[in-house]
Amino acid sequence: MWVCIDCGERNTGTPDECAVCHRPRPAPRAAIWEPPEPPPLWIPEPADPEPNGPPARSRLIPALPIAVLIAALVTAAVMGGPRLLGPDRPAPRAAPIPSAAPTTPILEDDTVDLVTVAAAVTDPRAGDVADMLETYFTGINERDYRAVAGVLDPAGEIDPADARQMAAFAEGTSTTRDSDVVLVRLAEAASGRLRAEVTFRSEQKDGHGPPERLDETCTRWRAVYVLSTAGNTYRMLRGDATNEPC
After folding, report:
1. What is the spatial distance between Cα 129 and Cα 111, in angstroms, rounded to a whole number?
2. N or C: which end of the chain has fewer CB within 10 A?
3. How many helices and strands in the chain, by DSSP H and E?
4. Is 81 contained in some domain?
5. Which of 176, 112, 125 has the alpha carbon at shortest distance from 148?
6. Which range marks the domain in which residue 13 is found?
7. pLDDT band for position 208 (50/70/90)?
């Protein structure tokens, strides 16, 4: 039986609607969950007091293997730990920084004079002239054209203050290496000047040889330089030379 909530009619059986007002039978209510009763609370009984006196031997025995194990692990960590990271090897050294390549060639032995004076030259000025020639030829070998400019007379064939003339001179001697320079004669010239006769050997790259033999890489020269004088200072005014292959 169920009672209609609208008209209060008591309906028997299981009709789907009220017999009087025809209201649909309400759906049965879902069961309401109620928590089960908790189990009875368990209260542990107090433990028996330990007897007085030293602890029993059986309680120490389990602790010993644990202590030994811990000590073994510590030793393994100290002695074997680094080996776990890989084989021992020295720390890599930083690659050395290469030094900058010199911008000018370096003579094999710069303590040996490039220019020598022939025994036949007895003029007391030969030493100072040889020093001037040393500066000139060493400057060419080391591409130190500032040093070369220092022994050129501005009134001569090449004006050291003229950038274009010096650039042309540098280009013409850019691959040249002179050696066997010998002052073979020193004589007076007009207007208080000197004539210095010099022999030397030059090596140069193919294409930089004398104008008549551009492909020549080794040449022997005999040059005569006219020098201006100012006390013990000598500078080149001009030069003339002959040459032949080595």
Report:
1. 19
2. N
3. 5, 7
4. no
5. 176
6. 1-28
7. very high
